[in-house]
Structure formats: structure tokens, C-alpha cells
Design brief:
Elements lengths: L3 E4 L7 H8 L3 E4 L5 H10 L2 E4 L1 H7 L6 H6 L4 E3 L13 H10 L5 H15 L16 E4 L5 H4 L6 E6 L2 E2 L2
Helix pairs in contact: 1-2, 5-6
């Protein structure tokens, strides 16, 4: 997975800049990271992973996802599923929180959940649909923005793994 750093969730301690300095694959959380941190991360190719479910469940302010996105850092979102601070298991709810709380558009949130996540894991052959890439896909009913605006609905119609329908 490459180095990953739990960075600046509860206060600014310089962890995001450290992630960039050591070439970490990602800096996760970033609730209190600064513009200088984002500049260093963008230059180093360190993905910023935002976990809006932690902010939601802990009733804390959301990090500024719009500012991170606009800084040029590759953005990913994740559930951060754990029993203490983020009991969220579903990506549709996480995508919805990314739109409502982080300031991303539905398209940006979906990209961050797919391509951004793959980049954070350094999986260059996933997270996009293109010739020569691994065909891992989730097909949804209706418009993809429904993932952001209707997270309470079962929108997944098919799951395809390596080109084979599995669900």
C-alpha cells in the first residue's frame, strides 16, 4: 500500500507535510492541514484522503475538501470504517457526505471514491474505464449523482470484478 500517514485530524501537527517529505502514498484525514501542506503534497504526489464519516459521527467540522481539490492534490474519500470514530460502512453515504460536508460536486466525489482511491493505493490500472485497465465496476440504477443525493436507496444494480458479473 505504500506509506500512509494519519495526518492532522485533531490539530495541525505537520503530519501532512511529513507525508509529502517522505513520499507517502497518502495523508489521511487532513482536517487541520494548511495550504502549505497541500502545496507540498501536490508536488510530492501524495494523495489526500478525506474521511467525512469521521467528522459526521464525531460531530466535528468537516475539512475543506473544496480547498484540497482546488490545490491540485489528488483527492480520495474513504469510509474510515471503525467502531470508535466512524461506524460508516457505505460508500454512497460517504459520497453524500463529501458533497454535503466537504464541498465537492457529485462528479468530484464519485471520482474521489473511485479513481482517487485507486491512486491512493497506487493501483494505476483501476478506478477508470479504459482499454487495458482492470474491469472492476459498480453499475448504478439511474444517474450516478444519485449516489450523492439518494444514499438511502439501493442503487447498485451490478458488480463486475475483472470483467465478470459477480452480483
Amino acid at each position: 500500500l505504500g506509506m500512509r500517514i494519519h495526518a492532522d485530524q485533531t490539530g495541525h501537527i505537520g503530519a501532512a507535510a511529513l507525508a509529502a517529505e517522505v513520499g507517502a502514498a497518502s495523508a489521511d484525514h487532513l482536517d487541520h492541514a494548511t495550504d502549505d501542506d497541500f502545496e507540498a503534497m501536490a508536488a510530492a504526489g501524495t494523495t489526500g484522503v478525506l474521511v467525512p464519516g469521521a467528522s459526521w459521527s464525531m460531530r466535528l467540522p468537516y475539512p475543506d475538501g473544496r480547498r484540497l481539490w482546488d490545490s491540485g492534490v489528488t483527492v480520495a474519500i474513504a469510509t474510515d470504517h471503525n467502531p470508535g470514530t466512524s461506524p460508516i460502512e457505505t460508500m454512497p453515504f460517504t459520497i453524500s457526505l463529501a458533497v454535503a460536508g466537504l464541498g465537492l460536486t457529485p462528479s468530484e466525489a464519485i471520482w474521489a471514491a473511485t479513481r482517487g482511491g485507486a491512486i491512493s493505493l497506487r493501483l494505476d490500472d483501476r478506478g477508470l474505464i479504459a482499454p487495458g485497465k482492470v474491469a472492476d465496476l459498480v453499475l448504478v440504477s439511474g444517474h450516478p449523482a444519485g449516489l450523492a443525493y439518494r444514499p438511502d436507496r439501493p442503487l447498485v444494480s451490478n458488480v463486475i470484478k475483472a470483467g465478470n458479473v459477480v452480483v
